[in-house]
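In this section we walk through a basic example: taking a raw amino acid sequence and producing a predicted 3D structure, encoded as discrete structure tokens. The instruction is simple. Fold the sequence below.
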Amino acid sequence: MALFDLPLDELRSYRSASVEPEDFDAFWAKTLQEAREHELAARFEPVETPLTTVRTFDVTFAGFGGHPVKGWLTVPSRADAPLPTVVEFVGYGGGRGLAHTHLLWASAGYAHFVMDTRGQASAWGGGGTPDPVGSAPAFPGFMTRGVEDPETYYYRRLFTDAVRAVEVARSHPLVDRARVAALGGSQGGGIAIAAGGLVPDLAAVLPDVPFLCDFPRATVVTDRSPYREIGNYLKTHRGRTGQVLRTLSYFDGVHFAARGRAPALFSVALEDQTCPPSTVFAAYNSWAAGEKRIEVYDFNDHEGGGPYQQAAQLGWLPAHI
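The resulting token sequence is shown next.
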């Protein structure tokens, strides 16, 4: 696929047409307050693996609604003092996977917390966190579950889980509370942006080819899933476009980015039809913190920079955490 979105010089100044709800902050303050009425109930259970360079803990904590959410915490085997920490969120359809698969950040000397994704983890990776909340009729996938109302939308639960994941990571004695970064790719990048807007004291945010940004444009500029799930829903439920876009505006990475205070390292791929580059730049250009950078991969689709972006992250993060 050749370049299909705006030219790079226009992308660098592009601004989203997404309209921020007047009660955006009140909605999220109420949501997080309700979540915190439940005890965090964090459990860290050591996992036996044949690995000798890291230690792993099987984590359970109370997310949205007090629902149990799983995760892995991996630390260098010789760690005996609080460490800078990376909290990672997972791409669409995936889960936390197996304990031995998360080695990069612990090998670089960080504590590494991977949050499982409620209700997903069946397209790849695997996981163990159900989503016990039902919803109105939805197109297969997660993009339209409860989409007629912000209160019932699936991502309200998932973004709340993400905030709680930061809190549970900070509760462990091997985590330095002041040096915590959020990162992820695709859906995980969108969740990291949300965490960056909802957790004001993160040390850094690293969204890689992020999803869940600039819904008004994303839903019309690409016909690739997962954004196409929304179009397919509206194709059946005619006349509900305004209502659905209003719900999505409470979850748009553009509005979370406008509240991002931490230094940020983004990435974008200019042939990406899953997360079109204009939608990524919409969030990047809205990022509130002055210190930000974006890596551009000219001829890549949604795979983005892959190991090149990991190298960029490993080089960039130490100066900020």
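Looking at the output, two observations stand out. The first helix runs from residue 8 to 11. The chain is about 30% helix and 20% strand. In the next section we compare this with other chains.
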